Amino acid sequence: MPEPTDIPSFATTQLALLTTELNAELAETQLLLSSTSPSTLARAGLAILNLNLSSQRTGLGGKTVVELTLDPAFVTKSSGSGKGSGSQDLPEHGIRVGDIVAVSEQPAGAAKKNEKTGLKERGVEGVVGKVGTERVEVVLGKGSGDGKEEERMNQNMNKLLKMTSSEMTPFISTLFGHSSPTPVPSDLSTVNVEWIDPSLNDSQKDAIRFALESREVALIHGPPGTGKTHTLIELILQMLKQGLRLLVCGPSNISVDNIVERLASYKVPMIRLGHPARLLPSVLNHSLDVLTRTSDAAEIVQDIRKEIDAKQASIRKTRNGREKRTIYNELRELRKEFREREKGCVEGLVRSSKVVLATLHGAGGFHLRNQKFDVVIVDEASQALEAQCWVPLLWLKASRLVLAGDHLQLPPTIKSLNSKESKARKKEEKGKKDGEKEEGEGKVIKGMTLETTLFDRLLELHGPSIKRMLTTQYRMHETIMRFPSDELYEGKLVAAEAVKARLLTDLPYEVKETEDTKEPLVFWDTQGGDFPEKTEDEEIGKKAGKGMSLGESKSNELEAALVKLHVSNLVEAGLKPEDIAIVTPYNAQLAVLSQLLKERYPGIELGSVDGFQGREKEAVVVSLVRSNAEHEVGFLGEKRRLNVAMTRPKRHLCVIGDSDTVGRGSPFLKRWMQFLEDHADLRYPNVSDVYVDERGG
Ligand SMILES: Nc1ncnc2c1ncn2[C@@H]1O[C@H](COP(=O)(O)OP(=O)(O)OP(=O)(O)O)[C@@H](O)[C@H]1O
Asked: Gene Ontology cellular component (predicted)?
C-alpha cells in the first residue's frame, strides 16, 4: 500500500494548483474578451448584440428577471422574420438556459467603430433563465448563489492545512490513508436487504450491500451503461429506510437534477438547494426557493407579504406626509419580520428534510450551516475536483461517504495542465529539494495534478477492497463492448440480454439491411497517407464556447468526407439522423464536420469526445483525425478519452482513422487497432471513393 498522504502537503499542493488553474481560466477569458470584438463573439455564438430591455419583473426568490429582445432599429436581413409587431427572431446563438452571462452596455456610435478593443465593461452578472426564438430572460445576480467556487475550495484547503490533531476524525484519517477503513466482509450475500426495485442485477445489489455495510467510505465503480445512478437511487431509498439523513451531491446541476427526477417517482420528500434558474423545470417543485413559497410553513411568511403589498398600495393613496412616514416605518418593520420569518421557514424546511440535494459547491452554502448528515453521497465523483468534494466533507463535518463514478472515463477538465504558469511551477518544484518545506506549510507533492480525483486517490491508497464494480451494461452490443471491457474493466463487463445482439435493423422503425446496418462494428482504415491531417488554429468557441480553446487543433477533410459517406449510407438505409452522433477529439475537425453535415442532416448530433461523456446514441461515428508521417497522436493517447469515444453507441460503432499513425501512438492504441482489424467489418477506402461521393451528393 502506498504511504499515507501528508495532510498539510496535500492542502499546500491543492492550493497552488487551484491558483494556477484560476489564473489560466482568467487569462483565457481575458484574452477572449480583450482580443475579440463583440461582433466576433456574436459570430462565434458567445454573445447576442443589439438587445433592448423589454421588461423586468421579480422572479422566484425575489430575484430580478430581465427580458431582452432585439432592438427593432438593429434588425438585419439575417435576423428578424419581419413580423412587424416589434418582436424579431434573435440571430443564431449558443447561449443556453443555466449559462452564466454578463448583461452589459454595448459600445455605441464612435465607440462602436473602435469595438476591436473588445468589451471592457463586464456589466451585470446573471443566469440565463429562458431562451426563446425572440427573447432571452436573464435572472440577475451571481450564478452559484453565494460566494465564488474558487474561494470556497481555497477556504477548505486552508482549513485542512491548519487542521489540529484533535480535529482529525477517523473518517478524515481514512481519507488520507492514516488508517484503513473498517473492513467489510467480502461475502455480503447473506446481508438481508428488502429490495425496493426488484429489477436490480447482482452486481448492483452487491454494490448497495457493500455501501450499506461500509463505515467510512465506499466507492461504487460504474463503467459505461451499467446503471450507476439506478444503483444510487436504491441505495438512497435503503439508507432512508434505515433512518439515515443524507446529503446527495454531484459536481454539476444536471448530475444532481438527474437524481432528484428519479427520486421524485418514489415520492421521497426532499429539498434541492440551488439557484432556480439553473435547475431543470421538472425539479423546481423540490427546490428550496419554491418550497419556501408553497409549503405549510410558508403560509405565515406569505401573510406578511400580503400585508406589505397592501401597505405599499396605501402609500400611493396617502397625500399626508406624516401618514406616509408612519407607513414607511411600519413597512420597514414588516420587511424585517418578513426576512426573519423567511429565514425561520427555510431553516425549518432544511432541518426537517431527510434528503438534501445540492451541487458540491452548493453544499457549502449558509443554508446548511450546522446541519448534520449521516452520509454524504456523491454521484459522478470522478468528474469532480477533489477540492470540490471537500466542500461538503469539511463544512458539514461528514463522517461517512459514498462515491459513485468511473475513474477510467475522463476526469474534470483542467485548463492549466500545459499552461506557462504550470510549467513555471513545475520548474520551481524541481528546484526545491525533496522534503523541503516552507515555514508553516506542507511540502508540495510532486506529480499531483487537479486531474487526480478523490476517487482516484482513495483507490490508490486503499486498493480495490474499498470499491465494488457494476458489471452488467445496458447500452452496447457485445462486440462494441468487448475491447473496452477487456482492456479497462478486467474483462468483467457483461452485456445485458436485451442489448447484447441488438442491431440497427432491429430498431422499432424500418431500417433496411445493408452492409453497414447489419454490422455492430465498422472500421474505415485510411492507412497509406492519402488522408492526411491538417493543423489549424482552432476557431473560438464553436457552439456556445463549450470546449473553447485558442490553441491549435487538427482537422482532416478527407476523413470528414468519409464520415459523410458513411452517414449518408446509414440514412439511406432508413436510420433517422437523430439516432446518429459523430464524435471527434478535435474541435477543428468538429468545425469541418459541422460545415459538411449540419445543413444536410440537421438532426444529427456532432460533438467533441469530452462533451459527449455521459451520453449515448444508436449509432456513433468516431473520427480519429490523426494521420501523419511522424506517427504523432497527441491527446488521442489518453486512454480515458478513447474509452469515452468507443462506449457511446448502442448498436453501431464506426471508427474512421489511420491505423498506421494511430497504432503507433501507444500500446493501448496498438491493441485497439489490432482488435478492429480482427473483429470489425474492415474497409480500405480510396480517395476517389469520397471524391465520387462529393460529386454525386
Ligand atoms: N437492473 C437493471 N435492469 C434493467 N435496466 C437497467 C438496470 N440498471 C440500469 N438499467 C438501465 O441502464 C441504463 C443506464 O442506467 P443509468 O442511467 O442509471 O446509468 P448511469 O449510471 O446514469 O449511466 P452510466 O452507466 O452511463 O454512467 C438505463 O436505461 C437504465 O434503465
From this structure: cytoplasm; nucleus
